[in-house]
Every structure is written in C-alpha cells, then in structure tokens.
Amino acid sequence: MKLNQITICYYSPTHTSKKIAQSIADGLQIARRREIDLTTDTSTSPISIQDSICIVAVPVYGGLVAPVAAQRIRRIKAINSVVIPVVVYGNRDYEDALIQLRDMLQEQGFVPFCGAAFIGEHSYSRPEMPIAENRPDDEDLKMAEDFGKKALGVLLQHININEKENLNATDFSLSHQKTLEELLPPLNVKGNKPYKTLRTPTPQAPVVDESCYGCGDCIDWCPTKAISMVEGHSTTRIDLCTKCCACVKFCPIGARTFETPYTAMLHEKCKERRTPEIFF
Ligand SMILES: Cc1cc2nc3c(=O)[nH]c(=O)nc-3n(C[C@H](O)[C@H](O)[C@H](O)COP(=O)(O)O)c2cc1C
Ligand code: SF4
Ligand code: SF4
C-alpha cells in the first residue's frame, strides 16, 4: 500500500480555514495535490479519498465544528488515508471542536495522526470593532507551513523508514505493509467528551441597504443558498442563514451588515492574541 498525494479539504466561508489548510499543505511539499472545497458544494454525492495525506480544515462555531461543515464531511469516504484535522477559530476559544473533528474524520475512515487549532479573523469582526483582524497573518501562515513540515516528519518516523532518501516532491510515495492504524500512534487533542451541547442559534441574517446594485455575487459566496435577487436587490432567507458573514465581508460596496451584541463583547474580551496549538 502507498500514500502518494495530498488532499486539502475545507469548508471556509470567509477563507481563513482555506488559507491555513493551504499553508500546511505547502509545508508538506508534495507536488501531487487535490483540493476539495465544500463551502458552497450542496451536493450529497459521496467523495472518495484514497492513498492520501489529507488536511481537513473547518471553522469553529459555538466551540464546535460549524454544523454545515460537519454535515458535508459526512460525504467523505476515506480509504488508506491519514488526516490532519484542523480547526480555525476567531480568537475566543475552540473548546471541543478539534476533538469532535478528529472523531468525525475517524468515522469517515481516516487515520488522524496530528492536528491543530489556528486563529482566523472572527466572522463578526468589523473595521470599527476588530476581532483577530487580518488573521491568519504572515506569522500564522509561517507556523502553518512549519507544522506541515513537522507533520511529514512524523509520518516518516513511522512509515517507509528504509526509503526516506528516495523521497522527492514530484514523485512522492510512502509505501507500507501494515495498516495505517497499526503504524501510527493514536492522536490525542484538547477537548472534552461528551462534547458540549450546541445552543440553538437565534435566527438572524445580515441586512442589505439601498446601495446594493444587484450584481448577484453574494449568491455565489453563500454556503447555504440563503440569498436570492428580488427586484434588483439581494434578499436573505433568515431560516437558511448560518451567519457566516461571507456576504458581509466580500460585498464590494459594503451593502450588507450583520449587527450582533457579540461583536462588541468579543472585541472587548478577546483582545489578547492567541497562538496556534499543534498536537502530535
Ligand atoms: C456562528 C458563528 C459562531 C462562531 N463561534 C466561534 C467560537 O465559538 N469561538 C471562536 O473563537 N470563534 C467563533 N467564530 C468565529 C470563526 O470561528 C472564525 O471567524 C473562523 O476564522 C471562520 O472561518 P472561515 O474563514 O473559514 O469561515 C464563530 C463564527 C460564527 C459565524
Ligand atoms: S449585496 Fe453586494 S454582492 Fe450582493 S448583490 Fe448587492 S452589491 Fe452585489
Ligand atoms: S446570507 Fe447568511 S449564510 Fe449566506 S453568506 Fe450571508 S451570512 Fe453567510
């Protein structure tokens, strides 16, 4: 059996989880690379991942894996593949999200061998009330790349020891006789079991002001198809909105705003810079 490619898989409405996953993959330095973006993929068909070193990155919502990400990950069927579970959170806390993601990926057939929690600009961050603004920054991305390098080192420690000198980025292949479960030690990460219970979210959605000129781009960014166009203006179905704030952050003229008391609270309480945590 062989591991011979990288698969990067993410759900990332405001692109922070995506950036972290890509930097970790850069650190692994393997040329054969497949990218699976689950953010706006509402299909229910199975996704097969085989003979792969996979990175799965998702945002933390309420201290757990973002529910839509959790739902989409259930489509994956992994065969002979190892995985790096990665959660990205807005400088408050990730609570039980990483342990939940590790378990979830194991259920989909992966063997988790290292994991991490990184920080991204909070979805609710606004220029006048920033929360982890512009993160991941250069320092975070460098840490993510270094983590990728270390992750490869961990794999080499346990697999393919005799062929190490033959490895190169373009023709990468790690061969193994025993199963990955037998070769790799179990991964311990921070978090509690049973996981915390997800609070029922209060239904709310961004509001659109008069400046919306109906370009329709936010329809494409919305992960849950909550936006549609009515008489040249974008409107939102509150029941479908996950408050991810992709439409708020990316609208070129700032026509969408999301008002919540959490923004001021998080801006006040989460000023101290948190640093990424890695687990082997
Ligand atoms: C509904 C919701 C709940 C969130 N809950 C948390 C949380 O519990 N802890 C935290 O630090 N950040 C929280 N965040 C912030 C996101 O985890 C953070 O902004 C992340 O970087 C977004 O990832 P993305 O850019 O890949 O979409 C929350 C964001 C949203 C929209
Ligand atoms: S809200 Fe912004 S992105 Fe959406 S249709 Fe209006 S102008 Fe375009
Ligand atoms: S409408 Fe809601 S779910 Fe859709 S992009 Fe905007 S905040 Fe996210």
The CATH superfamily of the largest domain is known as Flavodoxin domain
What is the level 1 CATH name of the largest domain? Answer: Alpha Beta
Share in β-strands: 15-25%
Structural class of the secondary structure composition? alpha/beta
Radius of gyration from CA coordinates: 20 Å
List unreliable stretches of 5+ residues.
none
> DSSP helix count?
8
Q: Under the CATH scheme, which architecture of the largest domain would be assigned?
A: 3-Layer(aba) Sandwich
The CATH topology of the largest domain turns out to be Rossmann fold
Distance between the termini: 23 Å
What binds here, in terms of ligands, is: flavin mononucleotide, iron/sulfur cluster
Query: Per the principal axes of the C-alpha atoms, what is the gross shape?
Result: globular
Mean pLDDT: 95
Query: How is the main sheet built?
Result: 8 strands, mixed
Give the oligomeric state.
single chain
Helix and strand sequence: EEHEEEEHEEHEEHEHEHEEHEHE
- Tell me the number of strands: 16
Q: How much helical structure, as a percent, in the residues?
A: 25-40%
In total, the number of domains comes to 2
